[in-house]
Description:
single chain, alpha/beta, 25 helices
Amino acid sequence: MNKNLAISGFDAQYKFLDKDFNKKRKFSINYSVTNNPRIKEIQNVSRSQCLGRFSWPDIEKLNAWMVSAETGTFMKWGGLGMVASELPEAFNNTFGHDGHVFTIVTPMYLGNTGKKKAELNGDVYLGAEGKSVKVKKIKTIHVPFFGNRAVLNRFAVDVYLAKYENTNYIFLSSDRFFSINPSPKNVSAQDGCYVLNEFNVNEVERFAFFSKAVYELLEAIVCKNCREIELPNVLLANDWHSGALSGLTKYFTLAQVDAGRMDEKVARQLKSIPIVHIAHHLGYQGWDYDNTSKILNSLYEDLATVVFKNAKTVKNSNPRAINSLVISDCYNQAACNVFLADRVVTVSKNYMEEVSKELSLGLDFRDVLKIRKDHRNFYGIVNGYDKKLIAPLKNKIESINAYFKTTDFKFFDENNLDVKLHNKVEFIKLISKIAKDKAYKDQVIPLIDIYKFNDIEKSVEDVAKTPLFCMTSRLVEQKGYDIAAKAILNVLENHTYREYPIFVLGGAGDKEYFTQNLAKLKDDVAEINPIAAKRIFVFRGYKDEFAYAIQLAADFYMMPSRFEPCGLTQMEAMAKGALPVATSTGGLVDTIEDDVDGFRTEVFFAQKQHVYGNNITARRLKNNKNAYTETLNHAINTFFAKPEKIKRMQAAAMRKDFSWDIEGGSVYKYFNLLKTGQL
């Protein structure tokens, strides 16, 4: 029997969307008046959801699913993967003894990108993060979706169960959609679960299929065709990757009932499962213009035209956001959950305020998020972070010393911060050896490109009076490397120091972005101050041991972010006594107390618009580069003039605990939200 079966025999009265329906010169959407109660309900779903008119079900024992394309345990590319693993783990530790359960549902990725590798060997799954788990295949479901040709196929998806430590996993396996073997056309910046794969499946199509597979699994459970899994009573959809879920449970079910293809009781049971959508940051939404009709036809099959023509959003002032399946004329995977989920939560309270107020941060969703906030179904909960994993760890430090062979980094905590000075000495030796010994460099950081590294071991006369700044984020515009570069240049143009600061900046990302910002910074500083330039180390690439060593030694961690919904890096840096120097945006405002455990800009601008701080200061500073220069100057001057204050601040930063399960921590907020629909 063919695993991937073509579907035929659709009713003639129902039809797919035209292949190029969204590409017509005058694209417009008009909603007609209908007397059909189910179609009328589809038209009113978004309004009811955004105004909070659906009551939350009574839930005695939570049986929640975290539906996530990433997990920190098996496939991670960023902070949303850490949340997907750590939140359920903390939840099960905290509430599991009372009978509450949080299960993770995620793809079983297979293949090798060159940087990420995952494989299934018998009944053992080895994920891309080097962790393995024993799995049990329980069922094969068939998921309707378009393939390469304009034919709706039923793609086989194998369902596996596993348990990793205290948390149950449901893995969904598809040879076609969850392969991470890259296509020759895949660009280098796309990696992990975001590759254009060997079947030319891109990330948006992959995760639309993931949502459809989860929906088909839910339907199988409701229809008693998968008795090994209990139906969840709430779904937590982790960012845009699972953004199609609400449309499937709240639109597709009704359309199928209307077409006589689904029992009303089954539809109501699926539709009544509350969905909480986590919006990590709204800059990433899952856009796919070229495949708009293909994806919508895959999700809603031959009912796509019926659903699309009635997918009316809550009334808002954005003319681009009048249909919950597209923004303007483009498929947008985040949109459906933003308009239809029972609750929306984002990853810090300040980011919630920003995106529901500022068009430059909330983008096309600002108006609807303001409506949701006003009607108390949009919340901000700061992401947690397991402190025992990010604080200095003796075993980790020992393994780093074994890896580098020449280093002697030592363990420290807030009670023996003098050891951090020792680690700074060790790091200066390490980076100097990398600079002068190419064979050693190629051995310890083989995939990192360095630019004009200098040996500074003997030129730094007083390490205690030499501030060390670092920045090891992804090389993307969001992280603000250009802001950091301009601020460093401004500082070094206008000051002379006995001991110039050391700056170590870099990460994985685009070569051109690196050249235009970081390599140029090194060269520009060399023109005005060759001595200072020798203490600027810029690189492209990532190695965990190297990044960890930098934070063990650094006095400061630079975060000049253009937007930062929550940010985990500042938490990690603070746990190691590296004081963040940050812009005042998103979760950085919620997690960094200025001049107490870090430094933040007095004002913040989003696309030239002043959005944080007082107006007088904003008029004086004018933009983020000036604001960040002032804050960087303040951090340097405090280091030189008030070293004891820096020590107090470092101790305060290290004492701060963002763990999920501390008293009153984020896991308790999520428990209340999932159980009652309210914080």
